[in-house]
Amino acid sequence: QVQLVESGGGLVQAGGSLRLSCAASGFTLDYYAIGWFRQAPGKEREGVSCISSSDGSRYYADSVKGRFTISRDNAKNTVYLQMNSLKPEDTAVYYCAADLGLFRLCVSTEYEHWGQGTQVTVSS
Predict the structure, then answer these.
(1) Which sign does the torsion angle of CA 51, 73, 8, 25 carry?
(2) What three-state secondary structure class fits 116?
(3) Cα–chain-centroid distance for residue 114?
(4) What is the pLDDT of residues 28-60, one digit of tens each?
């Protein structure tokens, strides 16, 4: 059974850091493009950062460039999102997603498999 499980969310003050993890089971992440998405109340789900399975090329939304870093550890079958200099506007439920293939655009419709999400709350 294909499963993605996110962890690492929580409550943090503005300027703080969190590292989200996305652990895969039932399949090997090596051949999957991976994305981190977020959804705040009343807003659409947006792509935060995505990484290809081929050359590890990365995409970052303008709002997180220079603050967030996506990485993958295929040996651990896990993908991470390091979030630094957090802002209150980063508050959202964060989801990881995976799709079999070399590269995917960082839009939610491109991804087949989804985790359940983890809440990130940044206080001012």
Answers:
(1) positive
(2) coil
(3) 10
(4) 988 999 999 999 999 999 999 999 987 779 999
Q: Which amino acid is at 22?
A: C
Q: What phi and psi, each to the nearest 5 degrees, are found at residue 41?
A: -55, 130
Instruction: Provide the CB-side half-sphere exposure for 110 (13 A, CA).
Output: 20
User: Taking a C-beta distance cutoff of 8 angstroms, is the pair 122, 87 a contact?
Assistant: yes
pLDDT band at 103 (very low <50, low <70, confident <90, very high): confident
Q: Dig out the tokens for 99 from the structure.
A: 């799709």
User: pLDDT digit string (tens) for 66-99?
Assistant: 999 999 998 999 999 999 999 999 999 999 999 9
H/E/C letters for each residue in 5-62?
EEECCEEEECCCCEEEEEEEECCCHHHEEEEEEEECCCCCCEEEEEECCCCCCEEECC
Contacts of 38 (CB under 8 A, 6+ apart): 45, 46, 48, 90, 92, 93, 94, 95, 120
H or E segment to which residue 78 belongs? strand 78-83
Question: What's the DSSP call for residue 69?
Answer: E
